[in-house]
Design brief:
Structural class: alpha/beta
CATH class: Alpha Beta
Number of strands: 6
CATH superfamily: Flavodoxin domain
Number of domains: 1
CATH architecture: 3-Layer(aba) Sandwich
Strand content: 15-25%
Order of helices and strands: EEHEHEHEHEH
Oligomer: single chain
Helix content: 25-40%
CATH topology: Rossmann fold
Distance between the termini: 38 Å
């Protein structure tokens, strides 16, 4: 199994392959906040169906434009596709093309596309360009479309590049001393 930080495969309950049908989920995330929201929904999904089927899940960072063949395969076989990102964002052209091609080559009927879009004002219910684009893509492929909105933090980070740099300069000598001045472990009287 090929695994990187941007793309990885999780298989749940694969030891009991005879337990039920296989259910594939693809989660496309733009950033960590969007990924956290998608994971909340995914966790709820696993609690509902993990005992009834074999669940196979693929995560994909929307900024990752390499290995699009793997993404295309995941799109073609997914029962459920989450797209999570900021409401004002746009899908990268490569990802939108992979979605269009993959959905047109699907090997199964049915399925769903879930759009989890972050907004500063969750009370605003107007459809964004990304919402409309995803709805059109999903419905054009015969998928059910489910929109969702989550609150995006508009708070500025409480750190600056300078504060990170200062901390790294302080911590690097401490870490270097710890790594290079190894102390032999205490055996506490245990003999072999």
């Amino acid at each position: 199994m090929k695994s990187t930080l941007d793309e990885f495969d999780i298989s749940l309950d694969t030891t009991s392959a005879g337990r039920g049908p296989q259910f594939r989920v693809l989660i496309l995330c733009e950033n960590y906040a969007a990924r956290d929201q998608a994971m909340r929904h995914y966790k709820h999904l696993t609690e509902q169906i993990e005992m009834e089927c074999v669940l196979e899940t693929f995560f994909w960072d929307l900024k990752q434009a390499s290995a699009l063949e793997s993404l295309l395969e995941a799109i073609m076989t997914a029962n459920l596709i989450f797209v999570a990102g900021g409401d004002g964002s746009e899908l990268p052209v490569e990802v939108q093309s992979a979605l269009d091609v993959g959905l047109s080559m699907r090997r199964m009927e049915g399925g769903a596309l879930v759009a989890l879009l972050g907004r500063a004002d969750v009370q605003d219910r107007t459809a964004s360009a990304l919402h409309s684009q995803l709805e059109e893509t999903g419905r054009g492929a015969g998928l059910d479309f489910f929109p969702g909105v989550f609150a995006l933090s508009v708070r500025e980070p409480d750190w600056t590049f300078e504060s990170l740099h200062d901390r790294a300069e302080r911590m690097t000598p401490t870490l270097a001393r710890s790594l290079h001045n190894r102390v032999a472990p205490i055996d506490y009287g245990i003999t072999e």
